[in-house]
Specification:
Metallo-beta-lactamase, Chain A, 7-stranded mixed beta sheet, 9 helices, globular
């Protein structure tokens, strides 16, 4: 069977990712208002009411803005850790009890045809997680909102068929940004903030060496990065190891406000 993945939106202004295996269709985060996410799903041929549920990584607004309205409008179960439920309780409106689901980082579970592996991530949220989703021998991992690329995160996502990996900012652009105060800059640059282009690129080398064939650079900042810069930094890092995107692996950028292509992952 095939596994499908599409970055509907990925960036500091809102995140929503789609994954399907078999008859199970999942939305990872809903960080835009309900209507844009609904339209993005329909643009790739997915009716929102056919989703099996929404997986939530953490409670920051760029990951939950549309969770409540989508859950209520289409009667979708919402899956989050207890800490995330507490932190987002007053932000998403009332979720009916029969749609509330809890899980814990480090405890795998099945959601229809997909095996869900939630893992803890270093970010300044209540109980943030990334996900590795299994469909048979295939797997897709999402790893954004990382203050640093820890060994624990590597161990959880290494060997995935496809990885969406954070390439959030260029440190110099961030430091020179007149719109960000000192506290915000320190937060982003801290070890529970966001991953820079350079750190992402170094992580990318190890992940490709571990067998990942497709990497999408995601969660780009609108003010402190550009798709072209993120791609160039990763390409140059890969080149030092003799790895050529397009020949040895696939490297793309998940855009902030443009629904990406649907990636089809097949067994080799």
């Amino acid at each position: 069977m095939e596994m499908y993945f599409c970055p509907l939106f990925s960036g500091s202004s809102g995140n929503a990712l789609f994954c399907q295996y078999g008859n199970t269709r999942l939305l990872i985060d809903a960080g835009k208002p309900g209507r844009p996410i609904e339209e993005a799903l329909r643009s790739i041929g997915v009716a929102p009411e056919t989703l099996s549920g929404i997986l939530v990584t953490h409670e920051h607004s760029d990951h939950i803005a549309g969770v409540g309205v989508l859950a209520r409008r289409f009667s979708l179960p919402v899956y989050a850790t207890p800490g995330t439920w507490m932190a987002m309780e007053g932000k998403i409106g009332k979720i009916p009890g029969h749609l509330r689901r809890e899980f814990y980082a480090g405890r795998d579970f099945w959601l229809g045809d997909i095996g869900v592996v939630p893992f803890g991530i270093p970010h300044d949220a209540a109980d943030p997680v990334g996900f590795r989703l299994y469909g048979g021998s295939l797997s897709v991992s999402t790893a954004t909102d990382l203050g640093h690329f820890s060994r624990e995160v590597y161990d959880q996502i290494a060997g995935s068929s496809l990885i969406l990996l954070e390439s959030n900012h260029d440190p110099e652009m961030l430091r020179m940004n007149p719109h960000y105060n000192t506290v915000l800059k320190a937060r982003i640059l801290g070890d529970r903030g966001h991953l820079s282009n350079e750190i992402c690129a170094r992580a990318l080398i190890s992940l490709v060496a571990a067998g990942t064939g497709t990497v999408l650079l995601g969660h780009l900042s609108g003010e402190n990065n550009t798709p072209e810069l993120a791609m160039r930094v990763s390409r140059e890092a890969l080149a030092t190891e003799g790895i050529l995107p397009g020949r040895d692996m696939t490297l793309d950028v998940a855009l902030r406000d443009t629904t990406g292509p649907v990636y089809t992952i097949r067994e080799k």
